[in-house]
Amino acid sequence: MPTDKEHVHNRIAVLRAERGVSRRDLATALGVHYQTIGYLERGEYSPSLHLALRIAAYFEVPVEVVFSLTPFPRLGSTT
Amino acid sequence: MKGTTMEPTSRKQKAEALREESRRRAAERQQRRDEIIRATIDQEVAPRWASRAGRRRLVGLAAGLLALPWAAVVVCWYLAPSDTAMWATFALCLAAALGFTLIANPLMKVTRGVAGAPDRLLDERQITERLRAQALAHRATLALLVAASILVSTAVPDEGNVATLPSAVFAVFAIALLATVAALPMLIAAWRMPDPLPDDED
Fold first, then answer.
1. How is chain A split among helix, strand and coil, in percent rounded to 5?
2. pLDDT tens for residues A10-34?
3. Residues of A with CB under 8 A from a CB of B
4. Chain B nearest CA to A16, separation (Å)
5. Whether the predicted pLDDT of A46 surpasses 60
6. Which among A22, A24, A33 has CB closest to B112?
7. Is the CB of A47 less than 8 angstroms away from the CB of B201?
8. Number of other CB atoms surrounding residue B117 within 10 Å
9. What is the pLDDT of residues B104-147, one digit of tens each?
10. CB-CB: which of A33, A38, A44 is closest to B126?
11. How many contacts, defined by CB atoms under 8 Å, are there between A and B?
């Protein structure tokens, strides 16, 4: 499990829900175990650069849209 | 003349074709094996082992089995050479081997392949998890060896710098040590395994 210092925030769950993609579908597309997607979403595992880039490519967004070192602002927040 | 120059080439081609066929068959066999392992990894885990507490009970059971060859070492130490020591050692080692044969499959299932499946079937998170378990197992084995050497150096009857021990002790000790080194990474991986997430498709 990554320490607080190494924690990488991500928006995989949001993107997945928005596109209607299941964990299993995303896992199959990326060639990883479906539980790995769950651990990524829960922040219990930080992906390698290669996997992070592949996740971003899957959702067709820049990598910084999916991953960030600081928490993403909540939807509807003004800051 | 033409025949003699063609023959080696045709023999080479035949050999190459045979090698190619053998490679293809080996690849097919591996693919079938991988499919079986993948199906095992993704099988539903028995409810009694699905939770962290359940997995740790399974690890406890495996640790108990792993203790059997060590018990055989103690038996040999005190009773060998004798029929009692021989049969007790056979019984303990056989029970451990049979128990592990039965428990290996559930262990692989509860760890989703981190314990037991070949590397090529694991993703980067699972391989990291396996490496961590192996590193911890290495440290644990080292600690075990230090403890065993201290125990042996204090327990061995030392009469005039000549230690006398039944030779069976060394053979059974080697078996127990091998079993520990082989099994410990699996047990540590199963012990550390976090709870699986509920499926979002439900």
1. 55, 5, 40
2. 999 999 999 999 999 999 999 999 8
3. 1, 22-24, 31-33, 35-36, 38-39, 41-42, 44-45, 47-48, 51
4. 11
5. yes
6. A33
7. no
8. 19
9. 888 888 888 888 888 899 999 999 999 999 999 999 999 988 99
10. A33
11. 39
Residues B173 and B113 in one domain: yes
Which helix (DSSP H) or strand (DSSP E) does residue B129 occupy? helix B124-155
Exposure letters B151-178 (e unless 16+ CB within 10 A, then b): eeeeeeeeeeeeeeebebbeebbebbbe
The token duo for B27 is 């690849």
Q: Is residue B202 part of a domain?
A: no
Range of the domain at B83: 48-192
pLDDT on residue A44: 87
ipTM attached to this prediction: 0.83
Q: Which of B66-70, B107-111, B156-160, B166-170 has the lowest mean pLDDT?
A: B156-160
Residue B89 and residue B75 in one domain: yes
Looking at 2.40.110.20, 1.10.4160.10, 1.10.260.40, 1.10.1740.10, the CATH number of the domain A4-65 comes to 1.10.260.40
User: Left, alpha or beta for B113 (phi > 0: left; psi -120 to 50: alpha)?
Assistant: left
Q: What is chain A's length? A: 79
Structural domains of chain B, count: 2
Q: What ranges do the domains of chain A cover?
A: 4-65
If asked whether residues B23 and B63 sit together in one domain, one would say no
